[in-house]
User: Which sequence fits this backbone?
């Protein structure tokens, strides 16, 4: 006679099932068990469930998944007063009607068993309990560490100890890690060359390739998505296998009609990492399968273990109670019991407990039938160590603590003895350039200007990068456009007051391409700007006795024939009093710029004196003013009437200045008094001008010497902070090369010059 | 613990809203905890309480204390409920709420808080797009506005839109305000504002008059008659100034206000009537009115109307920006805590059920640090409250304006409850932190400088600190708890002209600290006295600008110092290096990138601490080679870089970015390399953090990562949000006052007191005020600040000034024993001011200081060489493991698909699944009885099966359906399920159902896998079959 073996429905957690199957393997028995996790839905729905729910009730796929577990508990014969419950009932009814849901039929089983206290839905009333994990009679070692960092070390050392005892590496598992633990563990294990693999799954969303696939699907082209996957699937079969599986669940028509539901299905995919032989594995508690393996359970503290549910599901605890669905409190209590039972049976279990919370950290509340054997753990550097990189870094840290705070730790000596010889701090200082290379650079282009010498002073390395290696980024922008156009207009207007600068601007072709859409408006603004500034400039000129005007004067020469460098400059404007042989230099700047002797003496702001120096080499006239003039028209400052004045230094000679600016309205700081000029550090004597010229020459030769000897040290001027940055570094684009932004750098020990 | 009467009241009072106004150090958080515990003991469930704290740390601590108490009291049920309880920050609570009801808000279920830089990136992109479209539209108002406000770039526009958005989002239902802007901001608003503005002016004039009165009294009858008569005339003029209520009259009076000439000092007289400040102050007011065009003939309404076209454009753009940003945020799932709060409010406003649930089910809402709540939080609470709020806080410690805290909420409630309107107000005065002499001195100061207009509360109104300790408590040893270190910068600078004032001040501090340490000054540690240590000392400053300088000077003096400030994340060596290394990878992939960045990036990477290639070698390569990746091979040192880049770049595109970062860290041994830099510990933490950051950025590819870093590097003032956790070291602490809130220190130093307060709002072109709308300068032959702007600025300046005073209150109340102030010696600051412009003025005025024992010289640091003697010679012996690591070929029984199925196959599979389910429930022992109920195809298939020789030969079969097993394979476990297993007397049959196509070789492999397992557990003969149900075919494969 033929017969079926007794069919049994076994409610179990996966570890208990694994343990049972394992036992059956060893005992060589066959059984007719159907294993099920009572926390998962018993009813089965068809693949297209989320599509149906979305179309029928506009419920997003996320939520449709959340509703699924409730169906088992909803009784179609009952009337629910609660709105949500009756809504779920309606859905369930519809699902059955459309044959999308098969109600679970318990009658097909001869018996029901609860294995190792696994969860059984409350609507299943009769069942028997079975236990296959028995309590081990030995204490569980509990390593108490002072923080999370030390916890990682204690786990690492335990692993090393086990390996040295000959435990099979494949039998060592690390459980219940946080993401940061994984990374810290990985660092140590890498250092010691112990293979370590995390079996945590990664969301498909982290993989850039998925983004590509989504793009295809979003655009509605499933074929392109498939082709793309087919072309790439050999590279990383883990991802693509999972994606193909999801594709293979639904027909094209269904997918196309519900792209968002389908994408949401894809979003749920998690990618399993590749397992390795001979590797320690990081697993979750639910991946425990063998009672005899070695489990190192981290973060054995209340906050992290067991995981806790809170009352924030679709149904509240109160609603859950109405249908006998487990509440968050039930769940939390359940997990406490479940894991306590498991831990009672694990032979080689090591618990790790970091103290790191503000007040004090608490152990997990599992009521075990075993005691703890508490071991207070403190990490100390070992005489025999597997973690060289880590020891090295530790040495550097301890050395730093000692240097900074005079803190001496126990480990410092042995670390110092080990690493002292090979340890030298990295110094980012420039270490030199070969003579040939420097010559090559100087041959290509070697000119000096005020701006270049200023930069050299701000930081020699910055000068080197910017002017010898040409590293700066000279993007076209509208400021350059504005500057050029204003210069051009003012230059031409001096020659011909009827010059049609509007035409020049409107017909120009050098407006930055990427903002071409601004040209028409900006041109209007520019024209207005020129009108405004020209009126001021013209008024100044008309009233001045400095009638001879030179504009855009290009000068370029060697000071001495033996010089390697040329000095270069284009002077925007020189106005000359031909009668008295005085001149002034005016440089246009779109934004406001100031000039003072103090700044010059600091070797900054050299441009105007540089022009003066160059000009005097060619023309036999005396300086009576060096000025910047702002050419930008700032309406916000319009009513002050001060914005576009000449700004700089001038001759302390009332008579001469009255020839330049009789009204005294055009020059900042110029005020006439009965006796001459109002006292100001802007007013200079002829001697002052001469001395400035002399000093400038010395600046030029000092700079040249520095450049020609390849002395491009990183030496920013620190101490005059502006916006928290030293003035040298504020506008410097090379912080990524010097690694020393706003910092003093030690002088180089072995600078290579020539 | 013994409680004071008011503490006890705050713990036990019930039945109405309660606001506890608790001074610094009065144990307010302790009271809140005690109240919670009292309720639990009385049977209230922990999840019936909502406890909201300002920081996560505070929430954790609160929770922890409660657990302790529950355990002690054996309240086990509460322990379980605790998991569900809301003891958290506002942010965490609102996030929880939104996550719970995401579906009602049309949000994704995985909604969370995003990196704010990602939102910022989107916002910038959006602004650029929007502004571009405005340019392209040639909208007349827009063009007029640009013409008028042009200052070189569009930044003013962006700033305006962002500022406005930020301010307006602080109001619940801001969209409505934007939609109906003109309903609120109209003529009648303007009229009210005009009156309010002159109220301010009158208040100032009154203050000036009072100051003059003090001057008058101090000088009357001191000199001669002429002086007295001068004083009389002046006094009359000041009195007259404030007499009128008519604005127009007042304006005329201010316009014509003039004092007579001060009597000349007679010869030979030394002391004489000095100038008073009052006149200047009136002139200042006159100037303000003049420049606002209020004293000329223009109509104040016109000045406002003139701004309207610009306001219109900005309003339109802001509206558009906010709406479009919302869409983008939704699309990309990018939300900030502010957004979450807005969602939570919307949820409670729209879902009555949820609101009622909280109103009915919650016993009490307890909120700590209520003075720091903002308007949205205040409103949020009002939605769930039901006369059951318990608030604790101290308005004098409200210092988070920059985070939108609005202490006025606290003040309003306090004043209402004090009048028994809507709740009960309780005051905690006793201080359990500081020396009582110190408390007296702190009171002296704030009695003089803190009042309702300046500081927010009238200090005289019962706000003074009272020691909670008995008189004989050990703290009372110091009756001079405030030390003033006066110095004369002029004299010192004459001697040391290379120093700055900041350096002088910190040198004074350094010398004083050294003196204290050397003299082993006694410190009371709660029980006993002990010599002072560095860690007892904290230097408090109101801004962090000078921290590096301070640290350097203190270190020069050999003083260990721990700075509570972070350097810019992206500016430290290791992060710069990583960024440049990633750029190099991108250069390998993208020619335009290569062109733009290669030279700089290769120089940077090569000379970095990681590769340390000498400059000369890199330069030879850059200068002489036709440089490029291929030529890197020519140089041994540079080739390493190329090899590394090549190795790592293979991971780009396929793997998540974090894999790439891991590969870089590992391959370049980056943690070993940072050992060569300063502060290696901080660097290691930063590297860890950076990795986490990259890991946390979901759905980002390599180009996204590069763009992200590019964005952070380019945008001024933006940085990756990172705070380093600090360990305990034996060092002087250097921190900002903000950072010190909630902490306490035995000895406090304050310096940098002369630094002018910044007043940011002043500089913006557009501002938004909930009262007055969008504000901007008026234009009439130049821009001027109109009265509405002045009014707004006055009101926020008042708040700003108040906060500065409160900040000082926080700073001083941190000290337990002693406060040391570094003060510039001067004799002109003792007069009262309408507003203080720095702390120096507050101290001088508040204490009426007279400089004495002025420091005129400094002891410079002696640089000592530190030496450390070795005690052991031992070295570490380094060992390594060696494992043969290879991929594990996991045994799988089912055929996983590696190709796409056609629609037909998918249909078949669905059908196959159904059949499988049916077959799973077939009772083979009674097959005949059952088949008739089955669909015909299955019925036929099964009948065929039952007729096969294999089935016919069965003798005493046992059937196992869906037989699940676990096999051991190379030490690893694998799971399998056999469709049908039949155990007969001496044979075992394995059967796998297929729809059709049973000739696939992979199926045979599958059966072989099953066979291998059964073989291990049974000695019987085993046969393996595939059964095609539709084709009615049974095929033996084993």
Assistant:
């Amino acid at each position: 006679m033929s017969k079926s073996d007794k069919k049994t429905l076994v409610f179990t957690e996966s570890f208990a099932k694994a343990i049972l199957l394992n036992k059956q393997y060893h005992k060589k028995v066959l059984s007719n068990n159907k294993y099920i996790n009572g926390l998962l839905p018993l009813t089965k729905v068809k693949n297209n469930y989320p599509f149906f729910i979305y179309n029928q009730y506009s419920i997003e796929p996320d939520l449709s998944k959340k509703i699924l577990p409730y169906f088992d508990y909803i009784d179609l014969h009952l009337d629910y007063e609660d709105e949500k419950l009756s809504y779920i009932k309606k859905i369930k009814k519809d699902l059955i009607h459309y044959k999308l849901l098969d109600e679970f039929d318990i009658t097909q089983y001869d018996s029901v068993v609860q294995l190792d206290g696994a969860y059984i839905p409350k609507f299943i009333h009769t069942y028997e309990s079975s236990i296959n994990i028995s309590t081990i009679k030995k204490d569980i070692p509990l390593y108490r560490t002072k923080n999370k960092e030390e916890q990682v070390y204690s786990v690492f050392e335990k692993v090393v100890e086990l390996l040295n005892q000959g435990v099979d590496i494949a039998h060592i598992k690390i459980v219940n890690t946080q993401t940061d633990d994984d990374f810290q563990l990985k660092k140590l294990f890498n250092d010691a060359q112990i293979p370590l693999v995390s079996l945590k799954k990664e969301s498909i969303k982290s993989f850039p390739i998925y983004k590509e696939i989504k793009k295809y699907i979003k655009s509605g082209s499933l074929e392109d998505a498939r082709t793309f996957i087919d072309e790439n699937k050999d590279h990383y079969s883990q991802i693509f296998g999972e994606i193909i599986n999801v594709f293979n669940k639904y027909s094209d028509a269904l997918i196309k009609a519900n792209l968002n539901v389908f994408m949401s299905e894809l979003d749920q995919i998690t990618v399993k990492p590749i397992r390795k032989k001979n590797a320690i594995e990081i697993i979750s508690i639910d991946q425990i399968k063998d009672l005899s393996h070695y489990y190192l359970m981290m973060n054995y503290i209340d906050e992290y273990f067991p995981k806790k549910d809170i009352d924030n599901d679709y149904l509240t605890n109160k609603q859950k109670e109405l249908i006998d669905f487990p509440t968050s409190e039930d769940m939390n209590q359940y997990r406490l019991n479940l894991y306590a039972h498991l831990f009672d049976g694990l032979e080689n279990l090591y618990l790790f407990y970091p103290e790191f919370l503000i007040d004090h950290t608490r152990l997990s509340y599992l009521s075990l039938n075993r005691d703890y054997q508490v071991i207070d753990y403190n990490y100390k550097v070992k005489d025999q160590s597997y973690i060289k990189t880590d020891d090295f870094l530790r040495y550097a840290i301890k050395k730093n603590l000692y240097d900074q705070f005079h803190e001496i730790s126990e480990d410092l000596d042995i670390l110092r003895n080990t690493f002292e010889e090979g340890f030298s701090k990295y110094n980012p200082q420039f270490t030199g350039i070969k003579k040939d290379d420097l010559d090559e650079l100087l041959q290509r282009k070697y000119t000096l200007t005020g701006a270049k010498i200023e930069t050299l002073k701000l930081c020699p390395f910055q000068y080197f990068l910017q002017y010898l290696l040409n590293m700066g980024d000279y993007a076209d922008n509208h400021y350059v456009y504005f500057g050029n156009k204003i210069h051009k207009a003012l230059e031409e207007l001096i020659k011909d007051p009827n010059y049609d600068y509007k035409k020049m601007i409107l017909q120009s072709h050098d407006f930055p391409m990427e903002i071409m859409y601004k040209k028409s408006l900006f041109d209007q603004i520019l024209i207005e700007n020129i009108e405004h500034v020209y009126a001021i400039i013209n008024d100044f000129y008309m009233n001045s006795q400095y009638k001879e005007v030179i504009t855009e004067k290009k000068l370029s020469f060697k000071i001495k024939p033996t010089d390697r460098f040329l000095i270069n400059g284009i002077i925007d404007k020189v106005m000359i009093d031909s009668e008295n042989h005085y001149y002034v230099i005016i440089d246009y700047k779109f934004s406001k710029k100031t000039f003072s002797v103090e700044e010059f003496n600091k070797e900054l702001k050299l441009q105007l004196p540089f022009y003066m120096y160059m000009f005097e080499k060619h023309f036999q006239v005396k300086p009576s003013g060096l000025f910047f003039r702002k050419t930008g028209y700032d309406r916000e400052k319009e009513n002050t009437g001060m914005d576009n004045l000449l700004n700089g230094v001038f001759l302390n000679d009332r008579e001469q200045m009255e020839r330049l600016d009789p009204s005294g309205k055009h020059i900042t700081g110029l005020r006439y008094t009965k006796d001459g000029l109002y006292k100001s550090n802007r007013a200079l004597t002829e001697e002052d001008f001469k001395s400035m010229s002399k000093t400038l020459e010395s600046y030029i030769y000092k700079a040249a010497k520095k450049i020609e000897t390849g002395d491009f040290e990183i030496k920013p001027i620190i101490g005059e902070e502006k916006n928290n940055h030293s003035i040298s570094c504020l506008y410097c684009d090379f912080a990524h090369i010097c690694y020393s932004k706003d910092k003093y750098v030690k002088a180089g020990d072995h600078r290579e010059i020539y | 613990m013994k409680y004071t009467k008011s503490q006890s009241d705050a713990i036990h009072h019930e039945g109405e809203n309660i606001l506890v106004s608790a001074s610094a150090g009065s144990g307010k958080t302790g009271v809140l905890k005690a109240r919670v515990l009292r309720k639990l003991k009385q049977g209230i469930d922990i999840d019936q309480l909502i406890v909201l704290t300002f920081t996560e740390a505070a929430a954790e601590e609160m929770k922890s204390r409660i657990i302790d108490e529950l355990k002690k009291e054996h309240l086990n049920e509460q322990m379980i409920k605790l998991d569900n309880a809301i003891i958290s920050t506002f942010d965490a609570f609102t996030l929880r709420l939104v996550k719970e009801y995401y579906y009602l808000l049309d949000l994704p279920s995985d909604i969370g808080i995003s990196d704010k830089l990602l939102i910022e990136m989107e916002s910038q992109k959006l602004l650029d797009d929007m502004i571009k479209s405005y340019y392209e539209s040639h909208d007349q108002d827009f063009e007029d506005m640009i013409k008028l406000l042009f200052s070189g770039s569009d930044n003013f526009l962006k700033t305006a839109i962002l500022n406005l958005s930020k301010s307006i989002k602080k109001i619940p239902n801001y969209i409505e305000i934007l939609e109906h802007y003109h309903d609120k901001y109209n003529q009648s608003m303007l009229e009210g504002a005009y009156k309010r503005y002159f109220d301010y002016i009158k208040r100032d004039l009154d203050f000036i008059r009072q100051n003059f009165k003090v001057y008058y009294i101090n000088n009357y009858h001191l000199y001669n008659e002429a002086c007295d008569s001068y004083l009389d005339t002046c006094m009359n003029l000041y009195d007259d100034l404030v007499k009128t209520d008519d604005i127009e009259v007042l304006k005329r009076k201010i316009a014509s206000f003039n004092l007579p000439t001060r009597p000349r000092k007679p010869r030979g007289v030394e002391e004489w009537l000095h100038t008073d400040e009052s006149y200047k102050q009136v002139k200042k007011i006159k100037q303000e009115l003049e420049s606002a065009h209020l004293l000329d003939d223009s109509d104040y309404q016109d000045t406002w109307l003139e701004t309207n076209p610009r306001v219109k454009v900005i309003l339109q753009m802001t509206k558009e920006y906010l709406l479009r940003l919302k869409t983008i945020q939704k699309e990309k799932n990018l939300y900030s805590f502010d957004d979450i709060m807005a969602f939570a409010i919307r949820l409670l406003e729209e879902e009555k059920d949820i609101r009622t649930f909280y109103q009915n089910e919650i016993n009490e809402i307890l909120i700590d640090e209520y003075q720091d709540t903002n308007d949205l939080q205040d409103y949020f609470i009002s939605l769930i409250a039901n006369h059951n709020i318990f608030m604790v806080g101290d308005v004098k410690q409200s210092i988070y304006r920059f985070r939108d805290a609005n202490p006025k909420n606290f003040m309003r409630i306090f004043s209402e409850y004090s009048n028994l309107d809507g709740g009960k107000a309780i005051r905690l005065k006793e201080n359990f932190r500081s020396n009582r002499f110190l408390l007296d001195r702190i009171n002296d100061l704030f009695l003089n400088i803190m009042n309702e207009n300046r500081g927010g509360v009238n200090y005289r109104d019962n706000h003074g600190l009272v020691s909670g300790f008995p008189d004989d408590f050990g703290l009372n040893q110091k009756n001079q708890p405030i030390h003033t270190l006066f110095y004369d910068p002029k004299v010192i600078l004459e001697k040391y002209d290379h120093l700055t004032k900041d350096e002088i001040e910190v040198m004074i501090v350094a010398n004083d600290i050294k003196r204290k340490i050397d003299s082993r000054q006694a410190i009371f540690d709660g029980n006993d006295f002990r010599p002072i240590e560095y860690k007892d000392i904290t230097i408090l400053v109101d801004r962090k600008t000078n921290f590096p300088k301070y640290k350097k000077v203190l270190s020069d003096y050999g003083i260990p110092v721990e700075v509570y400030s972070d350097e810019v994340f992206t500016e430290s060596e290791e992060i710069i290096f990583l960024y440049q290394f990633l750029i190099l990878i991108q250069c390998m992939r993208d020619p335009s990138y290569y062109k733009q960045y290669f030279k700089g990036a290769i120089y940077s990477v090569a000379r970095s601490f990681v590769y340390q290639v000498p400059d000369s070698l890199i330069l030879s390569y850059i200068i002489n080679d036709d440089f490029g990746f291929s030529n890197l091979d020519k140089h041994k040192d540079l080739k390493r870089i190329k090899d590394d880049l090549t190795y790592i770049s293979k991971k780009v595109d396929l793997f998540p970015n974090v894999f790439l970062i891991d590969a870089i860290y590992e391959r370049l041994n980056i943690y070993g390399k940072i050992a060569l830099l300063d502060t290696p510990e901080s660097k290691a933490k930063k590297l860890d953090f950076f990795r986490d950051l990259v890991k946390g950025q979901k759905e980002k590819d390599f180009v996204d990562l590069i763009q992200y870093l590019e964005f952070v590097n380019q945008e001024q003032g933006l940085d990756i949000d990172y705070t380093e956790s600090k360990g305990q070291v034996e060092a002087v602490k250097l921190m900002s006052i903000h950072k010190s809130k909630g902490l306490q220190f035995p000895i406090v130093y304050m310096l940098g007191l002369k630094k002018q307060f910044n007043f940011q709002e002043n500089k913006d072109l557009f501002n938004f005020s909930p009262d007055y709308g969008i504000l901007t300068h008026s234009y009439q032959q130049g821009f001027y600040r109109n009265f509405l702007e002045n009014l707004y600025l006055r009101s926020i300046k008042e708040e700003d000034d108040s906060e500065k005073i409160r900040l000082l209150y926080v700073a001083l109340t941190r000290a337990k024993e002693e406060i040391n102030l570094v003060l510039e010696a001067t004799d002109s600051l003792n007069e009262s001011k309408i507003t203080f412009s720095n702390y120096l003025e507050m101290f001088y005025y508040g204490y009426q200081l007279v400089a004495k024992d002025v420091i005129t010289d400094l002891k410079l640091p002696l640089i000592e060489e530190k030496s450390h003697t070795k005690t052991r010679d031992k070295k570490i012996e380094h060992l390594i493991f060696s494992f043969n690591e290879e991929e594990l070929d996991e045994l799988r029984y089912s055929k996983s698909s590696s190709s796409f199925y056609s629609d037909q196959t998918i249909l078949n599979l669905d059908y196959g699944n159904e059949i499988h389910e049916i077959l799973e429930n077939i009772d083979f022992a009674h097959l005949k009885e059952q088949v008739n109920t089955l669909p015909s195809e299955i019925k036929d298939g099964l009948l065929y099966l039952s007729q096969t020789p294999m089935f016919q030969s069965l003798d005493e079969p046992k059937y196992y359906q869906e037989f699940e097993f676990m096999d051991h394979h190379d030490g690893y476990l694998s799971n399998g399920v056999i469709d049908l297993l039949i155990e007969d007397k001496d044979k075992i049959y394995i059967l796998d159902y297929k729809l059709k196509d049973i000739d696939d070789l992979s199926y045979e492999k599958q059966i072989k896998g099953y066979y291998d397992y059964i073989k291990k557990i049974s000695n019987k003969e085993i046969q393996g079959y595939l059964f095609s149900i539709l084709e009615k075919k049974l095929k033996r494969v084993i």
